[in-house]
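Schema walk-through. Below, the input block comes first and the output block second. Nothing else is stored per chain. Lengths vary across the set, and this one has 566 residues.
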Amino acid sequence: MDHSELTAFFLALGLLLLVARMLGELARRFNMPSVLGELLAGVLLGPSVLGALAPGIHAGLFPATPGFLTGIEAVTTLGIALFLMVAGIEVDLSAILRQGKASFVISLFGMVIPFAFGFGSAMLLPELFVGSSAVDQLLIAVFLGTALSITALPVIAKILIDLNMYRSDLGMIIIAVAVINDIVGWLLFAVILGTMNEAGQTISVWWTIAMTVGFTVLILTVGRFIIDAILPPLQAYTTWPGGVLSFAVSGGLLAAALTEWIGIHAILGTFMFGVAFGDSKHLRERTRQILDHFISFIFAPLFFASIGLQVDIVQYWDTTLVLVVLLIATVGKVLGSLVASKMVGFSDRESLAIGFGMNARGGMIIILGLLALQAGLIDERLFVAIIVMALVTSLAAGPAMQWIMGQRKVPGLVDFLNSKAFLPSMRAHARDEAIDELVAALAPATGLSREEVTERVMDRERTMSTGIGRRVAIPHARIDGLTAPLIAIGFSKDGIDFDAPDGKTARLIFLVLTPRDEYQRQLQILAEIGKLLRSDQAVERMLQAETFVALRALINSEEKTQGAME
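--- output ---
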């Protein structure tokens, strides 16, 4: 890249990551997977929206020069490969092995039925699907069937992680089926490309199949043994966690190179290496977290956002083709997975969730479509239809699974905080004064009488002191007429006597108010505060917060860290 390309490269990556993370966080605010926002970021910044509204700005941000395009593709390819390694690390291999028969049956039906839908549609409606392509109709029909039968392992992994379902039995069966789908799908695509190539360039399909199976067996047997043997000396004699992290990334990239050489996409290599690496009993949880946080919040959003940059959806839009592709893709995949899931014993709700989970197509089908477009197998209209189908099914999968499984976001402590109820310098010197001061800060949010609320808290305090030690007190009460929990936090410079077991005065005071009939919610909040302030060091860090934003950030990060460890 020359100077201008390099400038645009860094500007584009920074903007893409910023918008992807912002929209990802916004999606989480609405209780949706962050991948939804990350995908939309690329659509907004790509030729479909920004390119249409401000073509000059778009061309400046994303120049169509060889060096720039190669750089962006390299970073995003690296990002998705590393993300699949992290997804592999999280896989519970024993859970997948327990689901061996079920995953095979679901994978079989989840491929055969959508393949039949895609193949049959292309054969029955050649004028719609073939278009300007000069390729034989049969090849296009086989391609469409293959494209509709595979699934998007990266997107599914991200959705399951966002929904905290990744390590569940349901999550593991979905991942197992997705792995089988992708391996078979790429092998079928290799057959198609091999048929198109001229003599002397034909891909050895049987060699590719044998090498892929051999690699998978080898990495999950001998590879697991070698990794398990290497980790202890790495952790004992290298800088922690640098030594282990370097080994993980190096191993993943080498595995990616091997599968790419075989003829299967590189992400299969990083994923399978991640499975073998994560299965080691010597791998520390903290190492998992470091890899996960860095890759999932930096590299993965770049890839998912880059999907929207691939094509101008408006220019090559064909409404009929888009709707038909979306319909046959969704019905075929959901129906096939649903029927098979019911056959192997899953409930109606679980079967439907599996169906919609497997319906997410995302980056895998876009990669497949790009290769087909470059090979002259399909035209731009069908490619746009595939792109739209991939985006819509990916966006719909998470919310659909959430709704089907009846999941709701579990509120954290930060959801009950109020900036006006943070008192960094309390005036009170006695317990009743402290409670009254904190109640006064919360009174406007309660809509209740300040005196009545104070009396309820003091009644609870007279029953048993709420000083828990380590210079912390948590006065609390369940209040009639309150509609949602509320928390006030105050810091006392000199300390206030709350009759704590260790005899220390309280400098950090949490006032917790909950609705009268939400006894379990009250216990949950008190337990969360107890975990948050489990050590003197944690209390001291809390007391160092000078603003509400700093306090909220600290509580939020501590909650996320504890959640990951659990």
